[in-house]
Amino acid sequence: MKPIAKQSSRKTGFTIIELLTVMSIIVILISLLVPALNMVKRYAKRVKQKNQFHAINVALELFNNEWDGYPDSDAEDETGASYCGAMKLCEAMMGQDLLGFHPDSYFRSDGMTGGTSAIDLYPNNPTSANLKARRGPYLKLENANAYRLRDLYSSAGKFVEDRFVLCDVYKRINRATGIKTGMPVLYYRANTSGTKHPLNIPELNENNGISIDDPDNIYDYKDNDELVLLGLPWSSSGLSHPMASDGGLTLGGDPAEPADRATPFNFYRWIWNDQIEVIDRPYRSDSYILLSAGFDGEYGTRDDIFNFGD
User: Fold this and answer.
1) Which of 194, 245, 287, 298 is deepest in the core (most CB within 10 A)?
2) Are strands 172-173 and 186-189 parallel, antiparallel or unpaired?
3) With the C-alpha atoms ordered 260, 173, 84, 156, is the resulting torsion angle positive or negative?
4) Across the beta sheet with 186-189, what order do the strands follow?
5) Given pLDDT bands bounded at 50, 70 and 90, which one contains residue 9?
6) What is the mean pLDDT of residues 249-265?
7) Do the strands 146-148 and 172-173 form a parallel or antiparallel pair, or are they unpaired?
8) How many helices (H) and strands (E) does the chain have?
């Protein structure tokens, strides 16, 4: 007679308590891992943005060597039309139509030469002679991140909406257009004969009394202020960039707190070279500054990225 097999008294599988314990450990590990992954992702984006600036720096040096100077960055062209630093940077690097920079350019919003017999340098159907006269593009089109203003904003204000700007690598879907782009890269050329740099940082007790509109300032916030005043294209909040000149409320700001209001002093704060102690000076006081709005998409915050520093 075969012996009857004894039923094992050992339990198989997991108990509820064991399952809950394992799940708790997994949740804890995920909660620790996600912030670390986000930090790695943000760092990688920052490196990518710095690489874009490096490419623009090289291109601007080529432009400087060929034309004996960096592109102008004034807020207007010679006719008084709105044509800011970001747009002039794009024209210098790519031309107004992305087919190359025309050497006869006056950096006018309408793309015309000066004088009474003005010529359109960037026509819809450029001739062979026109194209042969072009220089560049100084940046590769696939890496330039060039977009028209109408791709970002519902209204381009006083600007021509078909004009291009170079955008940074922090792409978001723009609310009005549905197109995913970065924010425009802002360009400021230094006034190398200037000697002043305005500062007003209440929390650091820094206020040198210099006006943001002093003509002797090395950098002029107005070069791109009209573009900054177009607001946050990815948000429906109607809030202002922290470095805008309209004094508007900023994202997450307290309406009752003056320090939360937009001011161009936030531009001057983040380009201030605090290593120089005897006088207030900006970084790159002899050339130009490039500015990306960074991860938060706002101009004038701590996470802005420049073509200096780490």
Assistant:
1) 298
2) unpaired
3) negative
4) 186-189, 288-292, 305-306
5) low
6) 81
7) unpaired
8) 6, 9
